[in-house]
Amino acid sequence: MSRSMPVRLLLGAAAIAFAVACGEQASPTSPSLAVAPPPPPPPKVQKVAVCVIPKDVIISKRIGTAGGRIDLGQHDSFQVLPGALQNDTTITVRIPAGNQLRVQFSPAGLQFRAPTVLTLNYSPCVTPTFDVNIVYLQADTVVEVIPSVDDPIAKTVTGFVRHFSSYAVAY
To answer: Which CATH number fits domain 50-170: 3.40.50.460, 2.60.220.30, 3.30.420.40, 3.30.460.10?
Structure first.
C-alpha cells in the first residue's frame, strides 16, 4: 500500500463527513425551523337575547339549609341545593318586564356554599337554535358566561349560580 492511500482515505472520509454536516437537516445549534401555532381564536362575544317579557314577576320565599325551590312560572325556576345556605334566608327573585329575559336576585351579594340551579325558558326570546347560555351581567354588560346546559327542544337553559346578582339569557 502506498503512502498516499491513507491520505486519500482520510480526505475521502473528511469529504463525506463535511457533506453530511452541510446537508438539509438542521444541527442542534441551528435555529428551529418549526412554526409557532396560530393563537387561539378570541372568546365568543355573548349577545343578550332580545325577548318579550310582558309583565314583572316577583316572588319571595324563605329557604333554609335544607334547600328549596322557587317556581317562577313559564318553566323558570331557581333551586337551592341542600347545604348551599348557612342560615334561613328570604330570597326574592324578580324577572322585570322588558325586552330581555333578565333575572335579579336579592339579597344582593348573597354567596352560596354550593352552586344553585337557575333554569330559564327562552321561548319568548329570539335566539339561535343552539348554544344558548346564562350570563352574569353588571350594568348591562356581560361579565361572565355561566356554565349552562341548553335544551333547544324545551327552549330552556340551566346554569349553576354561586352568588346573587343579575343574570340573563344570551347566545
So the answer is: 2.60.220.30
CA-CA-CA-CA torsion sign (81, 85, 86, 87): negative
pTM exceeding the 0.85 threshold for the entire prediction: no
Cβ-based neighbours of 13, under 8 Å, separated by 6 or more = none
Q: What is the DSSP string of 6-39?
A: HHHHHHHHHHHHHHHHTSSSPPTTSPP-PPPPPP
pLDDT value at position 125?
94
Neighbours of 1 (CB within 10 A): 5
- Asked if 133 contacts 159 with a C-beta cutoff of 8 angstroms, the reply is yes
Q: List the domain boundaries for the chain.
A: 50-170
Question: HSE-up of 85 (CA within 13 Å, CB side)?
Answer: 20
Give me the mean pLDDT over the 29-43 stretch. 66
